[in-house]
Amino acid sequence: MSKISLPLDRLNEALDGGVEDGSNVLILADLVVDKMKFGSSLVNYRLGEEDNIIYLVNNKLPVYAEKSVGDLEEKSDKVAFIDGFSSTIDKKSGSDFVVESKITDNTKNYISESLEVSKRAIKKMEDWGSSFIVDSVDSWVGELDSLENFLEEVSPVLKETNTVGYYLFPNLGFGEDDGETLERLTEMFDYVLHLKGIERTGTTLKYVDVRKPDIDEKIPFEVTPRGLVTYIPKILVTGPYNAGKSTFVETMSESSVSVDRLGTTVSLDHGKISRKGILADVFGTPGQERFDWAMDFLGKSIFGTFLIVDSRNPRYGRVKDMFRRLEDKKVPTLIVANFQNKEDALKPSEIEEKLGIETLGVDALNGEGVEEAVEKLFDKILSQHSWYYT
Ligand SMILES: Nc1nc2c(ncn2[C@@H]2O[C@H](COP(=O)(O)OP(=O)(O)OP(=O)(O)O)[C@@H](O)[C@H]2O)c(=O)[nH]1
Ligand SMILES: [Mg+2]
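# magnesium ion complex -> structure
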């Protein structure tokens, strides 16, 4: 069976290429995550992969769903809306596919009619290879047996037409523990992707928690105009005075700002970096002895740190002290041994041995080793999950 890719590289990697063709996928979205944005990224991405889209909307008029998906004008022959809402508000529908019963009358009937109309709409699309979106199943969850029946009945049609079903579900109150309904839903669907968010001093880290299959994988993401990307909100670049922090930020960033006075940084450096579908904001601290201030300011919202040292004078005591404090906060940290292009630089291995901490050599001025350092820290950050639980 072939795999269908989703609009987030790391998620596809976690799922061995994506979701199986013909499967039913529940997308449970906590309220801090905008499910519509996720949904429209999904639609646009699958359209780009040459899918047809069958979009069942039952909580607003199709025209609003259309708007949020974006400019579909030229793709209109590839997109069909099933109007599951107009009847409910006694409005005449302009769609080819309409659910005539009202969602407010009898949910069972409503779901079974939705099933028939959906089957018809899915089969109607030519060049099979489609995405079937249900927006949303929140009003169906009160009728779990009907929902289960829907999934069982639609499944053969999905398989026959190479279609994946995606069911958007805003999480209006399922916690981790009060799990009976959630458990039942998890049994009914082939995949359950839980979109979550954690708030940390002014930033929300959004991530996908893959509930089914039960793999220990959490993928932070952000919605950008280009689609979904893995996003790390705050990476710190710190280290002793004059170690090359500002230079390191500038070299690895696509755009950066530094506020320097007489060559020393007096405010935070800021840069945006992007590598292989991963986006991050990096902040460089001023050197001198002001590390405490930066730690207080950025506090718990640091997701990873480059600790820059001058390989000609690594200041082991201070570096060890900084490292220990980051370690206490469970921040993944990499020692970056800078000035490797200088003759009197110590080798990274010598520094690593003295510190007892993983160290990578770079020449921040000329960019030597910088890519490796970025990749290494990204890996460390994304493979450490403890910060999702704190
Ligand atoms: N040759 C060489 N020069 C470097 C390297 N990295 C930084 N420099 C130079 O060293 C000086 C200090 O670099 P900065 O990046 O300002 O150091 P900093 O850690 O931000 O300094 P403060 O903010 O004052 O603590 C600058 O003149 C840089 O051009 C390197 O790897 N090799
Ligand atoms: Mg600086």
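# post-check
The first strand starts at residue 3 and ends at 4.
The chain has a mean pLDDT of 88.
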